[in-house]
Design brief:
The structure is a homodimer of 329-residue chains.
Chain A: E1 5-10, H1 12-22, E2 28-33, H2 40-49, H3 55-64, H4 69-76, H5 89-101, H6 104-114, E3 120-123, E4 130-135, E5 140-142, H7 151-156, E6 158-164, H8 171-179, E7 182-185, H9 190-198, H10 203-209, E8 213-217, H11 232-243, E9 250-254, H12 260-270, E10 287-291, H13 313-328
Parallel strand pairs in A: 1-2, 1-7, 2-3, 7-8, 8-9, 9-10
Antiparallel strand pairs in A: 4-5, 4-6
């Protein structure tokens, strides 16, 4: 049986969820990861050590690791006090390896060996860039860490983002996209984790040219000032614009009804339509697979209801494998 | 062929050298390690995180690790700037594992698995103690980190050291000493790495009672204010006093002539007789194996001569295995 080459494009928690599920299937995985993070532990390491952002890559490495539970937990351990407070151990680990190997990609390769990962994790770029956020009033705010917490962004809204300096994508990322049978975009924060990958020069072209089928895992929720009122159709349209071609073959979309009080909580914070909807069901250029994708409520003594609307790794991977056999055969 | 149980007692660089050589032989190694360090990276982690001192244990783990060169080098990597400046990555690694496992010994066990070590590393105690240094004028100075840099210590000299609070040795350490065929004391700083092990309650008794042969690897050099004018005989006498019984069966002593200019440099800093000598050769209660033990000069463009008087791991391990077959058969 042919082992399919799957490339994922994303970053952060979304990629962690996707890869954790996907690694249980007999496929070759290459995870291309956004490199725009500059907040928290990652931001401090960038500033103080001059390293590239380890956070997103770390999450993908842990997701694909076949090492012991202890080692995987260690990589996600956060220090709670002293000079190391707030640092994730795994971020320090990647930064030390980058310093030793004198390149981020080199450090990631060594980390991948130590963590015995299934597949590959490829930082989309190997350069030091900062995300520039252009608001609807043309003001520019620098730093990915502003996305979720800056009140101006939430009020005025984002027109576009760009990376400075503009850099070429890692050759390895381009190569893997070209050789892929299937490319999966998302899940992940639209501006925080998805778009930065398309801003690495060469990525849109390779997506236009690859023979791979392309699946988009549609976001579950919208963010105020970033993706207000985005529908499934709007996400697809925007991503096709980033690729500069109508390339998306299929979309995976959640059809499981979400708890009303949870929606209410999201709408209070992120505005109306903060749960992504489908606009209409007329024929489109892409298939839509609608299934239950959400992470079940973790009920207990302290937590009587679900507090986040998130993808479930098992359900998501199953849906992708279903779509793959439909698209690739 | 019987696989001998060897227990080493020491800490720091001395144990690193010994264990690096010893691990190449078919023996069971248990390294008992001093836990009094409170300087540098280790001291900061103790103060800020409330962890136990990782530095000495880290060096022993790296020495016994059968993992890749990269992983071993990573454990010794030191950050050069930012908030992590001066920290050894391996120390951070052990501190994170201690926090996760909620005990230092538990953390060391997990580290041993991750680093695939040959044998075992056992912290001599599992409690948080400070070294108290009593000077010849009865003044007490607290903190192991003072040993080498405190001018008062260098001038007035040490009468004795003790740990506060007084704690029992790890049961595992006692057990290993009881089951040992051979116990090796040293090499290592006398007050910094050797004596603290004997201050853990239960260690002297277990050494009095074990059927193991005991070898002492004699120090090569003395330190001002600490071991001024100590001879081989004096070291043995002092260690037997710590054990409270004449238990040392054999001593390994360097007979390789050391470069005169190097001796001069040491004497300038550490006083006369800073290279340890044998007082006389009359019959003693212990054997003395005299061989070349010193680390050869690393000559090069930038380093025209040897700058430290240190044991060589290969020569030391070979001498120990020779003595072992003489003593244990």
């Amino acid at each position: 049986m042919k082992k399919y080459n799957i490339v994922t494009i994303g970053g952060g928690t979304g990629s962690f969820t996707l890869l954790s599920g996907l690694k249980k299937y007999p496929v070759n995985i290459s995870a291309i990861v956004s490199m725009a993070d500059d907040g928290g532990s990652t931001g401090r390491l960038r500033d103080e050590l001059g390293v590239l952002p380890p956070g997103d890559v770390r999450q993908c490495l842990v997701a694909l690791s076949e090492e012991s539970k202890t080692l995987r937990e260690l990589m996600s351990y956060r220090f709670e006090n002293g000079g190391l407070e707030g640092h994730s151990f795994g971020n320090i680990f990647l930064s030390a390896l980058e310093k030793m190997e004198k390149s981020f990609s080199g450090g990631v390769k060594e980390a991948a060996k130590i963590l015995r990962i299934k597949g590959e994790v490829i930082p989309v770029i190997d350069g030091n860039v900062r995300m520039h956020i252009k608001l609807n009033n043309d003001k520019i705010i620098v730093g990915e860490n502003n996305l979720d917490k800056n009140e101006e962004i939430r009020k005025i809204g984002i027109k576009e983002i760009f990376l400075q300096p503009s850099v070429f994508a890692n050759k390895e990322a381009i190569k893997k996209i070209k050789e892929a049978d299937l490319v999966i975009i998302g899940p992940g924060d639209y501006f925080g984790s998805i778009v930065p990958n398309f801003l690495a020069r060469g990525i849109p072209k390779s997506l236009r040219e690859t023979k791979a089928k392309i699946i988009y895992v549609c976001n579950l929720t919208n963010k105020k000032g970033q993706t207000d009122n985005f529908s499934l159709e709007k996400y697809v349209e925007e991503i096709n614009k980033l690729i500069k071609k109508e390339r998306i073959d299929a979309v995976i979309f959640n059809n499981k009804k979400i708890n009303a009080s949870l929606i209410k909580r999201y709408e209070k914070r992120e505005g109306k339509n903060s749960v992504v909807k489908i606009e209409n069901k007329k024929v489109k250029n892409y298939k839509i697979l609608q299934v239950d994708l959400v992470n079940g409520a973790k009920k207990g003594l302290l937590c009587k209801e679900q507090s986040f609307i998130r993808h479930d790794s098992v359900k998501l991977a199953r849906a992708i494998m279903e779509l793959q056999s439909f698209l690739c055969n």
